[in-house]
Amino acid sequence: MLESIEHTTAYIKSRIGDFEPEVGIILGTGLGKLVNEIEIEKQLMYSNIPDFPISTLEFHAGKLIFGTLGGKKVVAMQGRLHYYEGYNMQQITFPVRVMKMLGIKVLLVSNASGALNPAFKKGDLMVIEDHINLQPHNPLIGRNEEELGPRFPDMSEPYKLDLIQKALDIASAHQITCHKGVYVAVTGPNLETRAEYKYLRIIGGDAVGMSTVPEVIVANHMGLPVFAISVLTDEGFPDTLSPVSVDDILAIAQEAEPKMTQVLKELIAGL
C-alpha cells in the first residue's frame, strides 16, 4: 500500500507543481458545489490518477480540486467513495492517505445523513462530535505500516473539539441551525427499516449515514485533525417514517448546501 501511495502522490505532484495544500476537504452526496467558492488552480479527474479509485455514483463528479479557499490552499475531493460501491476499506481511504502525503494539516469532511434525534429536522446541519462504527470492516486491518501511523491509534478525540466549537459559533453568528451529535456509520446502500432506525437511536445515534467513519479512522491513524459536518436530508423517526428517494435526499442537500458552505468557508479562513 505504501508503494501505491507514494506512486500516486508523486504523479499528483508532477501535475500540480509546487502547490502544497494545507487543508483537505471531502465533499459528500449533493454537496459538491463548495468547489464554486474555490479559486481553482488545477483539477484532476480520479480516472486519470494512477491507483486512485473512481466514484461510481452519477451525482459524484470524481474530481480532485486544487486551489485557494478562505485564504488557505486546499485540495477537495468532489465526490467520495463508499463501501457499498464494492470498494474495500483500504481503497475508500486511499485518497486520505494521499492528501496527507501531499501536505495537508487538517481534514474537513461533509456528508448527507438521516436524522435519528427527534429534536433535529431535515435541512438542519449537524457537527459530528463522535461516531459509532457499524460498518463490517476496518481500514486498518492487515499489516500496519509504521510510516503511516501506529498499530493501535487512539480514538478518544476523533473530531477536534476546538474545531467543533468554532463551527458552532460560526453557525450561531449566521442564525444557522446547527446541532452537534453522534454519527452512526452503516453499510448501505438501502436506507434503514423502522426497527433499525429505532435501534440506532437507542444505541446513541443522532444521525445515520453510509460514509465518513473509514476516512476519519485513517486520518486519526496518520495524526490528522478532523472536522466533520452532516447535512440532515431525511428523518428516521419510526413513528412518522415515510418513503424517501435519492432525489429527495439530493434536493434537501442542495437546499442546505449554502449553509454548510458558509460554515466551512469561515472555519477554513480561521485555521
From TrEMBL:
InterPro entries: Nucleoside_phosphorylase_d, Nucleoside_phosphorylase_sf, Pur_Nuc_Pase_Ino/Guo-sp, Purine_phosphorylase. Residues 23-269 form the Nucleoside phosphorylase domain. The keyword Phosphoprotein applies. The keyword Transferase applies. GO terms for biological process: nucleoside metabolic process. Pathway: Purine metabolism; purine nucleoside salvage. It holds the Pfam family PNP_UDP_1. Keywords: Glycosyltransferase, Phosphoprotein, Transferase. Belongs to the PNP/MTAP phosphorylase family. The purine nucleoside phosphorylases catalyze the phosphorolytic breakdown of the N-glycosidic bond in the beta-(deoxy)ribonucleoside molecules, with the formation of the corresponding free purine bases and pentose-1-phosphate. This is Purine nucleoside phosphorylase. It comes from Mucilaginibacter yixingensis.
